[in-house]
């Protein structure tokens, strides 16, 4: 009995000391690397000691999963790191895990998430909770592939994520643009809408033939944001929506958003199911794609600059699908990133992983095999690499890259996104009879502290 | 002076304790712990999210004060009860039918149990593939020239009438209930019914006086399980339901899934509300059943 108890005691003591030691080693590494006191060779050596990287990402794209297993995993293995690809259905699951780990007192070296593919609200949440590893992005060798100079407006996509300063706490990984596709079997070129007014006119003739994904899904939020830009009463488009809610104020946001929300209310009976009196917003991209494939809707929108090429190739879009320029001048373009949490169990391996993901090699194969636009900036590359990137890009159908580039708009500030989605839920979904100003004010008041 | 019955009252033996321990631990630690945590969170206790206003009933006030909660409660109860009642009526007919001999009975007797081994998710997928506006029936109608656009096919799924949700529940739960009722009928035997028939009772009297009291325990246990499941089920109303107003489990999921993590507490208030409503309904149901049993002199 006594022996048993003392063995337990010793085991518990050992466990607690090793935990503290591991903690100190990881914390020391974090301090050193962030202070710039560590060579990249040291990081590579430490990453081999870590031995693995726990990467969490949305696993809903087969092409991406295959690329991850057949290209990224072997490349990481060469660096002495085994890639553990945790495929999740929603990025928020990984964020929740980081928060839960932190809540149970797990700090650097002790958590369960090394890297997350994310952007927008999820990054905002981690930043707000102070759960990010630190400013690492510009310390990696492949930081040279990105534009960091604030004087160049193109750097904004690397420096701001939905308006939230990235502060180097996440590495840009892919670019994206909100692109709508039309099924030419049912929607001829001459009837194709370019503006939201065009869309309404089309739906009056063809009721029920459009649907946008239900907010608070980010694809639905993005559609709503584009509507708000287009109906901005000052005609300044996306510009005022770049400010944070503290800067803009609830009353001003309500004034700017009012015409857009009126439009959303007006078209609701013309959306899918509306003619039958049961409007139903699709829950996610897969649901909307199914509707598009069955020509239940004539236009499908989502992030994916090369989505039509990839989806025509794998059969998830009909061969008659083409890209369209809609909404003209308000196609939101953003980037998505790899973030490292503050309680990453293998921080060195996470850094090596992030560095590999922003290499020309990884970006070219990703573009070629998955069809995700490059996250690195071609003008920062040497000409041969830039040419390789261009050669790997899938084709466009019905529009040119220049037309797509000419119609971009920036994302909405992350602090406004929550207010806008709460307003949509109250004003459009619940059909609240309160004035919009009051709904927006309530949404602002309910924001997380 | 203690009665002999008291003296014979069994005490827990070591073996029994060992047998009860696994389930007991699961129930008390996992289930009880989760319930306690849900209750605490719904009352404002979530220090890991930086929120601790315990005890705080504002989440319940906000929830119960909105019309959408009551609509959601109505749809939750409607789908759960409608599916349970429809499945029950069909299951009784099926179980009674199976006690009689008919050609192919052996094959049919195993065939009807098939949905029991098929997961709900597959049933939901089947409903979408068959009954959806882009589904097989719609395509057949198109091939036959009855419709020339998917929208002309009647909207069976994704409406608040919930035909899709109810269909999937009935499809899955009908065999389960029939199995339970059939088992009771088999074990009770046909002697009483035959004796009543010999004494001149007609079929209706036999059902009311003999068969019904026999199958009631099977009905109560199987409907309880199905109703409780339907109240808490998420997938079917999420995929096949009509969107807002959603059922309560879908509403809870939406709160949990929102990027704004503070809404999780609101979601917990929804979860606790589901537990309260389901618990109360089941308590009333069981109390009514006990009174019925007492009236028969069986308890």
From TrEMBL, chain A:
Signal sequence residues: 1-22
Pfam families: SBP_bac_8 (PF13416)
Gene3D superfamilies (UniProt xref): Periplasmic binding protein-like II (3.40.190.10)
Keywords: Periplasm, Signal
PANTHER family found in the cross-reference section: PROTEIN YNJB
Name of the protein in its database record: ABC transporter substrate-binding protein
Organism this protein belongs to: Devosia marina
Taxonomic path: Bacteria, Pseudomonadati, Pseudomonadota, Alphaproteobacteria, Hyphomicrobiales
TrEMBL record, chain B:
Keyword Transmembrane helix: yes
Subcellular compartments: Cell membrane
Keywords, ordered alphabetically: Membrane, Transmembrane, Transmembrane helix, Transport
Keyword hit for Membrane: yes
Swiss-Prot/TrEMBL GO biological process terms: transmembrane transport
Location of the ABC transmembrane type-1 domain: 73-287
Residue intervals passing through the bilayer: 20-40, 77-99, 111-131, 151-171, 215-244, 264-288
Domain of life, per lineage: Bacteria
InterPro entries referenced in this protein's UniProt entry, alphabetically: MetI-like (IPR000515), MetI-like_sf (IPR035906), Sugar_ABC_transporter (IPR052730)
GO cellular component: plasma membrane
Pfam families recorded: BPD_transp_1 (PF00528)
PROSITE patterns in the cross-refs: ABC_TM1
Bilayer topology: Multi-pass membrane protein
Family per similarity comment: Belongs to the binding-protein-dependent transport system permease family.
Protein known as: ABC transporter permease subunit
Protein's organism: Devosia marina
């Amino acid at each position: 009995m006594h022996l048993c108890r003392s063995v337990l005691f010793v085991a518990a003591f050992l466990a607690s000391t090793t935990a503290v030691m591991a903690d100190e080693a990881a914390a020391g590494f974090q301090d050193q690397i962030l202070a710039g006191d560590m060579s990249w060779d040291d990081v590579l050596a430490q990453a081999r000691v870590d031995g693995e990287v726990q990467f969490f990402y949305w696993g809903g794209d087969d092409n991406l999963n295959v690329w991850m297993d057949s290209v990224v995993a072997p490349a990481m293995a060469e660096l002495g790191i085994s890639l553990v690809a945790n495929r999740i259905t929603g990025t928020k699951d990984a964020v929740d895990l980081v928060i839960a780990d932190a809540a149970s007192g797990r700090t650097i070296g002790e958590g369960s998430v090394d890297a997350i593919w994310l952007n927008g609200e999820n990054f905002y949440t981690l930043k707000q909770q102070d759960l990010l590893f630190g400013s690492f992005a510009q310390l990696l060798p492949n930081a040279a592939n990105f534009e960091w100079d604030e004087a160049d407006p193109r750097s904004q996509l690397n420096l701001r994520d939905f308006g939230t300063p990235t502060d180097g706490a996440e590495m840009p990984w892919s670019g994206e643009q909100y692109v709508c596709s039309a099924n030419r079997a049912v929607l001829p070129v001459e009837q194709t809408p370019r503006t939201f007014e065009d869309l309404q006119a089309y739906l009056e003739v063809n009721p029920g033939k459009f649907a946008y994904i239900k907010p608070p899904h980010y694809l639905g939020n993005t559609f709503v944001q584009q509507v708000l830009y287009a109906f901005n009463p000052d005609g300044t488009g996306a510009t005022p929506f770049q400010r944070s809610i503290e800067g803009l104020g609830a009353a001003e946001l309500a004034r700017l958003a009012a015409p857009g929300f009126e439009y959303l209310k007006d078209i609701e009976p013309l959306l899918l199911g509306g003619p039958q009196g049961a409007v139903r917003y699709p829950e996610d991209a897969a649901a909307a794609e199914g509707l598009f494939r069955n020509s239940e809707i004539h236009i499908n929108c989502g992030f994916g600059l090369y989505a039509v090429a990839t989806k025509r190739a794998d059969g998830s879009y009909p061969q008659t699908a083409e890209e369209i320029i809609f909404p003209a001048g308000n196609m939101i373009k953003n980037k998505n990133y790899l973030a490292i949490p503050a309680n990453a169990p293998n921080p060195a391996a996470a850094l090596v992983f992030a560095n590999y993901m922003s290499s020309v090699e990884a970006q070219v194969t990703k573009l070629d095999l998955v069809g995700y636009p490059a996250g690195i900036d071609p003008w920062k590359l040497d000409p041969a690499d830039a040419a390789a990137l261009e050669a790997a890009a899938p084709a466009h159908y019905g529009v040119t890259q220049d037309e797509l580039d000419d119609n971009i708009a920036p994302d909405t500030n992350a602090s406004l996104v929550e207010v806008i989605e709460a307003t949509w839920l109250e004003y459009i979904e619940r059909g609240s009879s309160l004035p919009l100003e009051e709904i927006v004010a309530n949404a602002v008041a309910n924001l997380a502290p | 002076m203690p009665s002999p019955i008291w003296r014979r009252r069994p005490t827990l033996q070591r073996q029994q304790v060992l047998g009860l321990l696994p389930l007991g631990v699961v129930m008390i630690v996992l289930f009880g712990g989760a319930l306690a945590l849900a209750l605490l969170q719904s009352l404002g206790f979530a220090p890991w999210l930086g929120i601790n206003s315990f005890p705080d009933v504002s989440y319940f006030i906000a929830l119960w004060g909105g019309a959408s909660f009551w609509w959601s409660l109505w749809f939750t109860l409607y789908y759960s009860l409608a599916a349970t009642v429809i499945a029950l009526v069909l299951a009784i007919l099926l179980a009674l039918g199976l006690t009689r001999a008919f050609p192919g009975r052996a094959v049919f007797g195993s065939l009807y149990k098939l949905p029991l081994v098929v997961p709900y998710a597959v049933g939901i997928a089947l409903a979408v593939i068959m009954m959806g506006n882009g589904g097989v029936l719609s395509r057949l109608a198109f091939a036959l020239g009855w419709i020339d656009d998917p929208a002309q096919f009647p909207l069976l799924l994704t409406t608040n009438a919930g035909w899709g949700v109810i269909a999937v529940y009935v499809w899955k739960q009908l065999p389960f209930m029939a199995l339970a009722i059939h088992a009771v009928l088999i074990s009770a035997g046909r002697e009483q019914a035959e004796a009543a028939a010999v004494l001149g009772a007609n079929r209706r009297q036999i059902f009311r006086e003999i068969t019904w009291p026999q199958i009631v325990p099977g009905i109560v246990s199987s409907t309880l399980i199905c109703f409780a499941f339907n109240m808490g089920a998420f997938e079917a109303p999420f995929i096949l339901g009509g969107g807002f107003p959603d059922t309560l489990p879908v509403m809870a999921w939406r709160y949990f899934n929102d990027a704004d993590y503070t809404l999780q507490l609101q979601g917990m208030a929804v979860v606790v509300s589901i537990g309260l409503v389901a618990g109360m309904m089941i308590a009333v149901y069981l109390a009514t059943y006990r009174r019925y049993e007492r009236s028969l002199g069986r308890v």
